[in-house]
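W.,

You were right to be curious about this one. When I first looked at the sequence I had no strong expectations either way, so I just let the prediction run and decided to look at it fresh. Below is the sequence, 138 residues in total, followed by the output.
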Amino acid sequence: MRRKAVLAALLVFVAGLALRPMAESDLFFHLKTGQEILRRHGVRFSLEWFLSGEPFYTAAGTLSEAVSAAVQEVTGAPPKRSTGGGTSDGRFIAPLGAQVVELGVVNASIHKVDECVTLADIDALHRMYVAVLKRLLA
């Protein structure tokens, strides 16, 4: 019974790794730790991992500054720079050297059956995009 509990805990652990962005070195550290736990408990296993994209960070630059200023202009508050929004196609673009900034509506219902946004949020986002373009093209 103990082996089943260890295996179940490890499956949850590995599944959690798949859902959270992290540097490749951190990922391999956690996978190695998981493998060591399985071996210690005599569990026979096979693990195959495919890295589909690295997490990314865009340092301050022309694009991020234009977006930050536009968000503050429209909302009255500075934006919160965060990678907590979930998986992003930016992870494939950033390694090419481009600045990557994601700016969109807050969407608690994203990818659900009744996905929706308010018209006010779309209007505010439109004003932000216009403000960004004005800054970049000035």
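Here's what jumped out at me. The chain has a mean pLDDT of 78. And, maybe more interesting for your project: The chain is about 50% helix and 0% strand.

Coffee later to discuss?

I.
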